[in-house]
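Example 3.
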Amino acid sequence: MIPIFAHPAGLWLLLGLPAILAIHFLQQRSRLVRTSTWFLIERLAPDSARGRTWEQLRSSRTLWLQLAAIILASWVLAEPRWVQTESAQTVVLVLDASASMDAFRPAAAAAAEREMTLSEGLAARTTWVVMTTNPRQPPLYRGLDRSLASAAIASWRPELGRHDIDPALRLARGLAGASGRTLLITDRRDRVPPDQRAAGVGRRIENVGFAGATVTPDKDGVMWRALVKNHTATTQVRSWRLTAGLGQSPEQTITLAPGAIAEISARLPDGIEEATVVLSTDGFAADDRLPLVRPAPKPLAVDVDGTDETAEFFRKLARDVPGVTIVSADAMATLRLARASQDEVQRERRSGIFWPPADQRAQMPLLTDVVTAERDALVAGLNWQGWLGTGTHGFAPARGDTVLLWHGKWPLVILRAPSQFAATTPPAAVVAANRPDDAALSHAPTRKLLLAFDWSTSNAARLPAMVLLARRFIEAERDAQPAPFAANFDCGALVTLRLRDAAAARSDETRAMLMFTPAAGGPAETIAIGETEAAGLRAPRRPGFFRVTRGNDVLVRGSAQFADPRQGDFRTAETFFVELRRERDVAIERNTRGDPLAVLWLILLAGVVLASWWVRTAGTRAAGEPLVASNA
Amino acid sequence: MNAAAVSFSPRRGALAAAARWRLPFSRQAWRGLAGNWIGAGAGSSLDFQDHRSYVPGDDPRHIHWQAFARTGALTMKLYRAEVAPAVDLLVDVSASMSFTPEKQARTDELLAFCVECADRAGAPVRLHGAEGRTIYPLATEEVRADRWRDRLRRSESESEREKGRTRTNAVPPSPSLPHSPSLSLSIPWRMGAMKVLISDLLFPGDPSALLVPLAAASGVGVVLAPSLAEEADLPWRGNIQLADCETNATRRQRVDDSLASRYRVAYHRHFALWREACRRRGILFARVPCAGTLAAALAHEAFGAGAVEAVA
């Protein structure tokens, strides 16, 4: 059985073997000896090299004793140990799922192989666990077959942006247990906790990539704007072009100063639904391609009743919302914006924004109470400090209503919706991004926004917060429609998916499918979307185009754009290795037993050293005495 | 300088050795001046040698009167001559002879021993030092006074200054034979003398070149070679920067067991070659160890080979 070494650094002593051989190849430093029998020696060895220092290796007892001493010393220092037959360990390889690791996948695989080779002999039975720091991703492999673990690593693709790796590491340590080992494979040292073994496989890459993009329709078509960032400390020159189908635009050159961000923009050609902006390639390909789709929001028919000032305000506001069509009262509108009384609102079966008839009371004083907003996606982040009004009027909150805005103790804005939806709180990230469409994932079929104040005696029309509130509501209602749409998403962003028939999604025939075409090329991927996954559907993690279909219907057509420019900055990427001596020592101590002959080796080593010294000095003593006499 | 060095005297060791040993004067009949040794011709010793007829001029004291009484013819009674053999000493004064203090001391002792033996035999001594191809005449008085090395150093320095004017041989050192004493070229060996060579013989070349003149012109040739035990082996291992004690030339040499083993064989073969060459030419050859006293050192190989003989 091949032993393992508790102190493998001791094997460096084996370098002494070639050193000893080299020394013995070299002639010893010559001693000056006078002789009276020169002619005899000259006659016996006429071919002796005069001045040559490299001689053929001459076997001698000293040589063999010294070689044996080196081998014994390295053996003793390395402290060989034998694995116990009943020992077991779990080795957990934690792969950093950051997208930046995509540039170092071969190096990461090599580091994992090294770790597996090092760990393989530490116990008789090794369970391999390959996992990533992606908290949503199950382990890539868990089992006893090392080759399958290697295959899992080879097929792994890191796609996440910046994320917290601590949960994954805690899970890894839990899986490894006391006798196991964990290794984090990453590309940046600052991601490694202090008490974690880690292998850094990164290196500096002269990367220039896309840092974000917007695609906005205007009256002349669709304009796209993309930010290109130079992540390096030197000036970089790149070329870019727009490709769509089989055609492509002429190449253009862009020069970026160190750390600079530049904007490139163009109009999406008419008739082109999907296009890709391609930067000249560098070491990190994930941010070199920017997929774009012509945005097509969901259609929303809006009926705005009335011609008074308030109705004109809402008509104008609704008209500016993409996808909204102002229809007449006779047409089938999905959303109604109208002045209505409490009873009319009760009878209305459509969603909408409703405001009460004008307050007929004369000379109502302005309330000076503080306006307070509730925690809701519709009012999140809005500033109501400039509100002027005469207090609540027209509507009173009913059971199940949500008061979004209070004026003192009086309700100002009420959201009427089924209770299971009214309590929904959007993700904080969505709120911060001012994306009410994402926040209103679970919008009810009929939601009513009741403005319980007299519009004419308030400054609501001039208050930006009210404008935003109304627009958010309209957009949320638009996005809540079960209709197809096209949009550009960040990689991994939530995709609002409304299925007309949720029950049908359970059957295989009508199950929604996501088809992804990577922007960098490669085979398209198709993923089935389950009922539960539909609610939290996210855009692909890699840049590319995707479609969500069900049957023959295209529900969503979108692009996933590289969204985390921090992943493209490789200035701090480095290659390193953080070893925890204690972890390996504990594993060795637990799984192996020491060499029972260690004392014998020590004694033998001492004996060999003494014998070597004796043999070496015996010649010197024999030679030294007459030399002294002859030179005296 | 330590106390042992101060108290060391070659002559003292030589006298002690001379009390037990002497040069092999008894090996043959000598010719030369009157002395204490049986000569090759008729002389005035008490040892009867022969009879012959009287010729005018013969010493009438040696007429054999008893024979004249019996035969009426004048017959001369001849006795052996007693002569003092001439001794020629050549000592190697190259650097290898002073390789260690022990070796230098043994060389000095051997030289003093030979001079002492000659003095005791009443033999006239002629003494030379040889370094490479340079021969330096030495005075026996300096040897007796243990100052011959001082005189030798002065001679060497004078030689260096005068570019060989005082050298008996003006042949410059040969680059091809930098270590050879080249004693064969111009050593003034005398006819019928006892020729004694004191050298460690640590130089390459054919021994015949040196031994042929040593064995020629009758007389007795003796080679006394001080030997150092550590010269017989290569005690070092590894990478050695060898420096020749004679020329100070250096070379890098890796010495291992294999080379040391071959060296030992070559060393012994070298002296075996000298020993065999001396035997074929009737020259007495002995290696004299540098360890121990001279008297003890001569008791082994030198006595066994006849290079010295016991004092009666």
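The first helix of chain A runs from residue 16 to 25. Chain A touches chain B at residues 27-45, 48-52, 55, 58, 619, 622-623, 625-627, 629-630, 632 (CB under 8 Å).
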